Each structure stands twice: as C-alpha cells, then as structure tokens.
C-alpha cells in the first residue's frame, strides 16, 4: 500500500492489521450551522507549505476514511419503517458524499489546513500521506504503528467515518470521526484521542434544479470545519493529559 511522503526522501508503506471492534455512529444532537460565507471561506483558504523548511525527523501519517454513511430520519424516529421509507434518498446521498469526499478530496482538504498548528506538532514535522484507507474494523484493535516507519517522533491522523444525518428535530449535518495517536520512541502510544466533529449543512443534499456543485463544495468546507472543531478539543484533551 503506497504512501506519499511530503518533505522526506523516501515513501513509507502502510500496514494491514487484524480485525478490531467497531464504533457506533453518534446519536442525534444539535449542531452549529455553518453559514455559506463560512463554508466558502473554509473551502477557499490554503494551508502552509506541505514540506517543512527544516525537517526535524518528526512524521505525521494521514489516512482518509473508507466509510460513508447517510441516515435520514423523519417523525417516526429512525425505526425500520423510517429506514425503508428513506432508503433511496440515503443511497443517493452516499453516492454524492463519495463524490465530494473521496480519499484524495479528504486528504486535499486536510492538507490545506495547518495540521502542525492544529495538532500541536513540531514545525519540522513531515507529512506522509496514505491514499488507501485503513480497514475500518481494525481501528480500535491495532495498538501499534499503522506504517512501518521507525521515526523517533511519530504521529497518526486517521479519518474513520464520514456521516451525513438529517433528523426531523435537528436538521441536516455532516459528522466526521477522527483519531489522532502520538507514539513515543518505545513504539507505544503516548496519547490517543478519538472523537466526532459535526456541523450543520444548508445546501446539501441538493434538490432537483439546485446547484449540485455548490452543495458538494459545502461538504468539503464543513468537513474541514469538523476537523478544526475536533482539533480544538484534541488540544484541550492533550493539555489536560500533560498536567
């Protein structure tokens, strides 16, 4: 499985692992709604240089999500009949999600942000991009590095799930499950944080006759906003751990 090393001399290889437990999607919850202006700003902004000016031996390995999901619930509250009534809509939404947020698009969105600052990594951290998603069911079980890197300073950013939800009470939202793991020189996890980021949608999914491109662009912008929300919480948790 190939990886693209941004700022280092040689690419690394991602590893496969044994099966592990799954993660349940979040329950209905109120989310902040991003305005079109906020989404446009998040979509158009560009991040810092992908390769550090002075690599210091630290690496951040990044994997996209393989799993897209869509759940539409009405007044029936998500029962079997509700699922059956919205099956066609959810299938179409999943196709649109995969179009806007395929693996390259997820990676491009993340790399447009300042991941070194967002995750409190050293300025000399090199990004190593893995285009092939990890097998979703291995995420919780595997406690070793997911690449064969032996870098003394090593971190992982894994996108686990991309989840569209429309609920009768809370409206439309995009939720994304992220995981960050930071390893010590002893190859053991020093810090791990897995959590959802979620924000509201105004344009997706597009109705017949509406601007499909704008709706898909909104998904990318909200995906980035979800990561920034997650990263803010990750920094808080990391600060509490260091105390």
Descriptive overview:
This protein is an alpha/beta fold and 243 residues long. The chain has a single domain (30-242), classed as Rossmann fold (3-Layer(aba) Sandwich), CATH 3.40.50. It has helices at 36-44, 80-85, 87-100, 103-111, 115-118, 212-242; strands at 3-6, 58-63, 67-72, 126-130, 153-167, 171-183, 189-200. Strands 1, 2, 3, 4, 5, 6 and 7 form a 7-stranded mixed sheet that branches. Helix 1 crosses helix 6 (212-242). It is elongated and about 55 Å long.
Radius of gyration: 18 Å
Unreliable spans are 8-24, 27-48
- What is the average of the pLDDT values? 82
At the third CATH level, what is the topology name? Rossmann fold
The appropriate CATH architecture is: 3-Layer(aba) Sandwich
Number of helices: 6
Main sheet characteristics: 7 strands, mixed
Q: How many domains make up the coordinates?
A: 1
Give the class-level CATH name.
Alpha Beta
SSE-based structural type: alpha/beta
Helix-strand pattern, N to C?
A: EHEEHHHHEEEEH
| % residues in beta strands | 25-35%
State the share of residues found in helices, binned by percent: 25-40%
Shape: elongated
Overall number of strands: 7
- From the N-terminal CA to the C-terminal CA, the straight-line distance is 38 Å
């Amino acid at each position: 499985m190939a990886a693209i090393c941004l700022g280092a001399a040689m690419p690394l290889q991602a590893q496969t692992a044994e099966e592990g437990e799954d993660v349940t999607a979040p329950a209905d919850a109120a989310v902040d709604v991003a305005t079109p202006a906020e989404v446009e700003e998040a979509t158009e902004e560009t991040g810092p240089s992908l390769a550090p000016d002075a690599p210091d031996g630290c690496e951040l390995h990044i994997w996209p999500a393989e799993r897209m999901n869509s759940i539409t619930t009405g007044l029936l509250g998500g029962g079997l009949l509700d699922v059956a009534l919205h099956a066609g809509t959810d299938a179409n939404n999943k196709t649109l999600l995969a179009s806007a947020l395929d693996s390259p698009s997820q990676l491009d969105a993340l790399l447009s942000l300042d991941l070194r600052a967002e995750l409190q990594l050293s300025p000399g951290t090199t990004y190593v991009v893995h285009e092939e998603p990890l097998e979703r069911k291995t995420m919780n079980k595997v406690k070793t590095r997911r690449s064969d890197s032996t870098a003394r300073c090593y971190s992982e950013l894994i996108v686990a799930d991309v989840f569209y939800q429309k609920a009768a009470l809370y409206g439309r939202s995009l939720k994304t499950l992220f995981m960050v793991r930071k390893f010590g020189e002893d190859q053991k996890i020093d810090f791990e944080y897995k959590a959802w980021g979620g924000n509201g949608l105004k344009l997706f999914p597009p109705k017949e006759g509406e601007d499909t491109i704008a709706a898909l662009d909104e998904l990318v912008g909200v995906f980035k906003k979800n990561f920034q929300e997650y990263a803010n919480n990750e920094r808080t948790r990391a600060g509490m751990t260091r105390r």
